[in-house]
Write a structure and sequence with these properties.
With 263 residues, this protein is α/β, with parallel strands linked by helices. The protein folds into two domains: 133 residues, Leucine-rich repeat, LRR (right-handed beta-alpha superhelix), CATH 3.80.10; 107 residues, Alpha-Beta Horseshoe (Leucine-rich repeat, LRR (right-handed beta-alpha superhelix)), CATH 3.80.10.10. The chain has a nine-stranded parallel sheet, with no helix packed on it.
């Protein structure tokens, strides 16, 4: 068996010890899907023991559970010496800045993780700063196939995006960047535009549900006149118009797309 999906099928922490024992012996399972199982810090501790000696699992999906900072500490300890896990999905948990600090310690030297999803947690500017600083120090982040960075639905504003932009300036691997559901304004978009003008790898940028106005959209439009790699840009949803974009700004963006042969 290469993949197992236990979405909403286990009884929280109580069953994680048994599963962890099986993971220690596993030699075939590559993807483990444990979303929506009420897993908390204790369950995460059990699972961390299970993956410490596992050298097969590549994708670890733990979205929509109850994992907090202590649980992330256990996971971080397990990941310190892990050389096989490439995808880590921790979206929809209770991770805050302390948890981000634990993950940052891992990311600084990790050479295998290529997708990290921390959306819908409780990370603000302090945690964001720690994460970005660790990525700046990780040579793998700039030279290998790190492809997805998902940080939507946290509390990131313009200052956090400035830090992210500094990280992305020299990155040649990230292809998908999801920053939806944050507090990004026009100034934050300006920082991203500075990256997009010279970036040759990002193909998808999601900025839905932020605080972007006309000035930010005009900046995006100008960047897209020269960017030749971005193929998907998400700004507004008919049912969610937190971004305040006027018709004139939308037209300015449409005009820019006339010269863009990719988007």
């Amino acid at each position: 068996m290469r993949s197992i999906d236990l979405h909403s099928k286990t009884n929280g922490d109580n069953e994680m010890k048994s599963l962890a024992d099986k993971l220690k012996k596993n030699q075939t399972l590559v993807t483990l899907h444990l979303s929506s199982n009420e897993i908390g810090d204790i369950g995460m501790e059990y699972l961390s023991y299970g993956i410490q000696t596992n050298r097969v699992i590549r994708a670890f999906v733990l979205s929509n559970n109850r994992i907090g900072d202590i649980g992330v500490q256990h996971l971080a300890n397990a990941l310190q010496n892990n050389t096989t896990i490439t995808d880590v999905n921790l979206s929809g948990n209770d991770i805050g800045n302390i948890g981000a600090q634990y993950l940052s310690a891992v990311l600084q030297n990790n050479t295998t993780i290529a997708m990290l999803d921390l959306s819908n947690n409780q990370i603000d500017d302090i945690g964001a700063h720690q994460l970005y600083d660790s990525l700046k120090k990780n040579k793998f982040f700039f030279t290998q196939m790190w492809n997805r960075l998902v940080l939507c639905c946290n509390k990131f504003g313009d200052n956090e995006i400035k830090l992210l932009a500094e990280v992305l300036h020299n990155n040649k691997t990230v292809t998908e960047l999801n920053l939806s559901g944050n507090e990004i304004g026009d100034q934050g978009v300006q920082y991203l535009c500075d990256v997009l003008r010279n970036n040759t790898t990002v193909t998808k940028l999601d900025l839905l549900d932020n605080r972007i106005g006309d000035r930010g959209v005009q900046c995006l439009a100008d960047a897209l006149r020269t960017n030749t790699t971005l193929v998907t840009l998400v700004l507004n949803d008919p049912l969610n118009k937190k971004n305040q974009i006027s018709d004139s700004a939308a037209q300015y963006l449409a005009d820019a797309l006339q010269t863009n042969r990719v988007l």
